[in-house]
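Work Package 3 (structural annotation) set out to generate three-dimensional models for the target panel prioritized at the project kickoff. During this period the team completed the workflow that converts sequence records into C-alpha cells, so that structures can be stored uniformly alongside our sequence database. As a representative example, we reproduce one entry of 191 residues exactly as it appears in the project archive.
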Amino acid sequence: MKKVLIRYILPVLGVIAVVLLDQWTKYLTVTQIGEHGRIVLIDGIFELVYVKNYGMAWGLFQNKQWLFIIMTPIVLGAVIWQYVKMPFEKRFIEFRIMEVMIAGGAIGNLLDRMFRGEFGQGHVVDMFYVSAINFPVFNVADSFISVGFVLMVVYTIFKYTDEDFERMFPFWKKKSVEADTEDKVTEENKE
C-alpha cells in the first residue's frame, strides 16, 4: 500500500493541488479584479491584472482553442505513459515532480479553454504582470508548466546521464542498440 501511495496517489494529489490552486487564483482574478481592473503590488514592477488569453504563452496561436484541446490530452498521455514506464527510484524523484507540475498546469489551462465561454472556445485567465520588463501576462498554470519544463532541461543537461535516459525512456535504449548494431555491421563489411 505504501508503494501505491508514493507512486500514484501522492502524484495524483499533487496534480489536483496544482489545478485547484490555479483555478482558485483565476476565480479570485475574475471576481475580485474583473475586466480592465488592476492591482499594483509593487509600483512599476509587479501587478495583478485580468487578461483573457485566447491563445497560448505570449499570445501565440490566438483563437486556436481546438488545437490546444486536442494537443493537451496527447501531451498528458505521453507524460503519464513516461511516468509509469520510468523506474521508481530516488534518482528520478525530481523528474517525476516536474511531470506532476507540467500535468497540473496543462489540466488547469485546459479546463479554462473548455469551460470559460462557449464550450471548447473559451479563454485562459491570466493575471500576473511583471511591468518592470513588460513580460507577457501569465497565470499559476503557466508558471508550473514553465518551471517544470525549465527544470527538466536543467536536469537533462546537468544531472542525468545517457544511462539514466535509457532507463527513463525505454524506447531510447532500443534505438541506441539498433544504431550500435548497424555501426558494427558497417565496420565488419568494410574489413
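The two ends are 57 Å apart (CA to CA).
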